[in-house]
Design a protein that fits this description.
Elements: E1 5-14, E2 23-30, E3 33-38, E4 44-49, E5 54-57, E6 59-61, H1 69-72, E7 84-89, H2 104-115, H3 119-125, H4 133-140, E8 148-154, H5 155-163, H6 165-168, H7 175-191, E9 195-199, H8 219-232, E10 236-240, H9 248-261, E11 265-268, H10 278-291, E12 296-300, E13 305-309, H11 322-328, H12 333-340, H13 343-351, H14 361-364, E14 370-372, H15 387-394, H16 398-411, E15 415-420, H17 428-434, E16 439-441, H18 458-469, H19 478-485, H20 487-492, E17 509-512, E18 518-519, E19 523-525, E20 534-536, E21 539-540, E22 542-547, E23 550-554, E24 557-558
Parallel strand pairs: 1-4, 1-5, 6-7, 7-8, 8-9, 9-10, 10-11, 11-12, 12-16
Antiparallel strand pairs: 1-2, 2-3, 5-17, 13-15, 14-15, 17-22, 18-21, 19-20, 22-23, 23-24
GO molecular function: hydrolase activity, acting on carbon-nitrogen (but not peptide) bonds, in cyclic amides
Pfam families: Amidohydro_3
Protein name: Amidohydrolase 3 domain-containing protein
Length: about 575
């Protein structure tokens, strides 16, 4: 006898994305949509026993960088292994379209520098069967994926496409340049771009240590581009703002641009060491301008931002030491670990004081911001756990502490550099931001920074740390945490068909063994083109992830289902 539904999730603890209280019930799925929610629903062709398990909407990640990976892989991991069912790529003004054939090398330098993806990986993986942005959308749409995805038009490649070397040299755009960029923006929005992205991030360098082409773009240029979105009647303006001046005006400039173009705005807001409390003034400005009719959201992060330093990472605690660079860095990993175990090699390494002139010196010598990583991972370590404090307590060199940390687990141990978002060595500011309106959890950067970070695991951290495990301050109710990962992020880009467990909504769901949910320490896998390496953090506890009514993950392992599709802007309701 035919079953009434395709899937029925039985007796789960439902966090429906609204932020209202948890309740127990069944969720029925049919034809890719949520058909019913209640008790004792009819039979399903497949049934999932969710008694004692958490049932949530699929997570929406608004800040990813799968622009490269999507061209060679149908699986957008690691995000899809952490419950993400919809992702936005093309952030930070970097991407691969539009791009003329003669500019490909410069664009590779851009992505290799900013997003830490090796050039040989990109060379082996990118098909380059596009030139314009609409061409790029057509190219990536040709295969199904394990996530839905949407794409922002990135500023830097568009600037190079229009201005050539003048863009790379950071020259201001002239009137003709601005007119061309406005037209390209309008055409990209009409072709399906979800918005436009740019960067004022002081850490965004190309491979040859130049600031990215869009870094110095003037307000007049950005306003003209935003008017291209206005011409099309769609699109969100996205910016990453860790600026040279670290002042409120840097953010309010974008408020003016978005107001002039009548477009929604979303940008990065972190607590930096240089201006740890600037976020308070920025949030006051956002709240004021939203009260006056704008739509502005701050993209915040819920753990430190920085890098994972290790012998198998792209950055090592000893990368600024001449002895390490000259004698050890070029050795194969296993040989290097064996050499470093020799007492005389260890002594020579720890005796080296480093070269302050090297760009890596400052990062690897900020010992008060360096923390040996533990298992289980602790993303809110105490000040007493940083390298400086541990070394002082034991009366040894900070390098001794880092040596022990990276040599753990057969040389695969890690030291966390908390460069940003941990200025006071706690996450109290993140707690406050997560509880404020007009903020969304973001900045996982899935698909990028392959050798240094694995922040795409942040949805799992959010569930574990903020609702269940936090010890250094108050927690956030689980239903509110789920809302931050689902409905709040879905609304930033106008995804009105997902982010809630509600009849008629898209059947994107997670079934999570919440009580036993865990996150591994970072590990390196070599699964990129040309054997390239990347850091990942495998979770344990995702019993099922469902996308458009098909199970894409089962007990933390992928299935054969690939229902993910490109979301073009025309599919969304007008904003």
């Amino acid at each position: 006898m035919p079953k009434e539904f395709d899937i029925v999730i039985r007796s789960g603890t439902i966090a429906d994305g609204t932020g209202s209280g948890l309740y127990e019930g069944d969720v029925a799925v049919k034809d890719g949509k949520i058909a019913a929610i209640g008790e004792f629903l009819g039979g399903g062709a497949e049934e999932i026993d969710a008694k004692g398990k958490l049932v949530t909407p699929g997570f929406v990640d608004v800040h990813t960088h799968y622009d490269g990976q999507i061209t060679w892989s149908q699986r957008l991991t690691p995000s899809s292994s952490h419950g993400v069912t919809t992702g936005i790529m093309g952030n930070c003004g970097v991407g691969f379209a539009p791009c003329k054939p003669e500019d490909r090398e410069e664009i590779l330098k851009l992505f290799e520098g900013v997003e830490d993806i090796p050039g040989d990986v990109l060379t082996a993986g990118l098909p380059w069967n596009w030139e314009t942005f609409p061409d790029f959308l057509d190219s990536i749409e040709s295969k199904p994926r394990d996530m839905d995805y949407a794409v922002l038009l990135p500023h830097s490649p568009m600037r190079v496409y229009v201005m050539g070397q003048r863009a790379i040299d950071l020259e201001p755009a002239n009137e003709d340049d601005r007119i061309k960029m406005r037209a390209i923006t309008k055409a990209a929005m009409e072709a399906g771009a979800i918005g436009f992205s740019t960067s004022r991030d002081v850490f965004h360098y190309t491979k040859d240590k130049r600031w990215v082409p869009c870094f110095k773009s003037e307000e007049e240029e950005l306003r003209e581009i935003a008017m291209g979105m206005n011409d099309a009647g769609r699109g969100v303006l996205q910016a990453v703002l860790i600026t040279e001046n670290q002042c409120l005006e840097d953010f309010e400039e974008f408020h003016r641009i978005a107001r002039a173009a009548d477009r929604p705005l979303t940008y990065t807001l972190l607590s930096t060491n240089e201006a740890p409390d600037l976020w308070r003034d920025v949030m006051a400005s956002i709240d004021r301008d939203n009260a006056n009719g704008q739509t502005i959201t701050a993209q915040i992060f819920n753990r430190p931002v920085g890098a994972m330093l290790g012998l198998d990472s792209s950055l090592c605690p000893f990368s600024a030491l001449p002895f390490y660079v000259d004698k050890l860095a070029s050795l194969p990993f296993e040989v290097r670990v064996a050499e470093m175990q020799k007492p005389e090699v260890k002594a020579a390494l720890l005796a080296d004081k480093g070269q302050p002139s090297l760009p890596l010196y400052e990062a690897t010598h900020r010992f008060e911001h360096l923390y040996p990583m533990s298992d289980p991972v602790d993303y809110e370590p105490l000040p007493s756990q940083n390298v400086a404090s541990l070394a002082a307590a034991r009366g040894v060199s900070p390098y001794e502490i880092m040596y022990e940390a990276v040599m753990a687990n057969g040389g695969r141990g890690k030291v966390m550099l908390a460069a940003i978002n941990y200025s006071r060595q706690n996450l109290d500011h993140a707690f406050e931001l997560m509880n404020r309106p007009n903020t969304v959890l973001s900045l996982g950067d899935g698909g990028a920074h392959c050798g240094q970070i694995c922040d795409a695991s942040f949805p799992t951290t959010t569930l574990m740390h903020w609702a269940r495990d936090r010890k250094r301050g108050p927690r956030i109710p689980l239903e509110q945490v789920v809302k931050k990962l689902t409905r709040d992020t879905a609304q930033v880009y106008g995804f009105h068909d997902r982010g809630l467990l509600k009849a008629g909504f898209k059947a994107d769901l997670n079934v999570i063994d919440y009580d036993n949910l865990t996150l591994s320490p970072p590990i390196v896998v070599n699964d990129l083109p040309a054997g390239g390496a990347r850091l990942i953090q495998p979770p344990r506890g995702y019993d099922a992830t469902i996308l458009t009514g098909q199970i894409t993950q089962r007990f933390d392992m992928p299935t054969d289902a690939l229902p993910g599709q490109l979301i073009r802007s025309a599919q969304l309701a007008a904003r």
